[in-house]
Amino acid sequence: MARYVFLDRDGTLVRDPGYVHRISDYELLDGVADGLRRLQAAGYGLAIVTNQSGIGRGLFTEADFHAFQKHLIADLERQGVRIEATFYCPHAPEADCACRKPRPGLFEQAAKHLGADLPQCWMIGDSARDAEAAAGLQGAVWIGGAGKALPAGCLSASDFAQAAERIVETTASRVGTREG
Ligand SMILES: [Mg+2]
Ligand SMILES: [Zn+2]
Q1: What is the CA 179 to chain-centroid distance, rounded?
Q2: Overall fold of domain 4-174
Q3: Dihedral through CA 173, CA 125, CA 21, CA 94, nearest 10?
Q4: Which pLDDT does position 79 carry in this prediction?
Q5: Is the pLDDT of residue 179 over 60?
Q6: Entry pTM
Q7: Residue 77 alpha carbon to ligand 2 centre in Å
Q8: CB 163, CB 148: distance < 8 Å
Q9: pLDDT one-digit tens code per residue, 85-128
Q10: Can you give the residue ranges of every domain in the chain?
Q11: Strand, coil or helix: what is 17?
């Protein structure tokens, strides 16, 4: 698989009360499972790309993160969705690392470990950081981005299902054009 849709996690796949990390707070957002199945059916691999500065800030541990992640992936699997990999930045902003979105480090890891062809890939997220981080990809969809300053190649959507639909439609319409 070379074509991936990279997924922000908090506020995009799951409800985010802020630094979400407890399984008791786990709540998959509406339309996410449907949207992910739609992307899979269109031939995209799926991987999570997430900033987890709560680890670097000492708010929760790396083990907490992995436990939550395992819970999410198992829940999606039961709904017919396969997440191939998770790439995360555990650093606090002060660490000035190369992997915290909007920097492209996590996408570079995905290219290396999954063989993702970044110019064919997309990002779905709920923040300006996600939209900016996707500069080296084919495009991004910013959930809740309507009316905001969208970077080049970035679309907006009102929810996850619509974000998935926009990627599938855009990809289909480009087949056979100069970009096809
Ligand atoms: Mg988010
Ligand atoms: Zn980092």
Answers
A1: 24
A2: Rossmann fold (3.40.50)
A3: 140
A4: 98
A5: no
A6: 0.95
A7: 27
A8: no
A9: 999 999 999 999 999 999 999 999 999 999 999 999 999 999 99
A10: 4-174
A11: coil
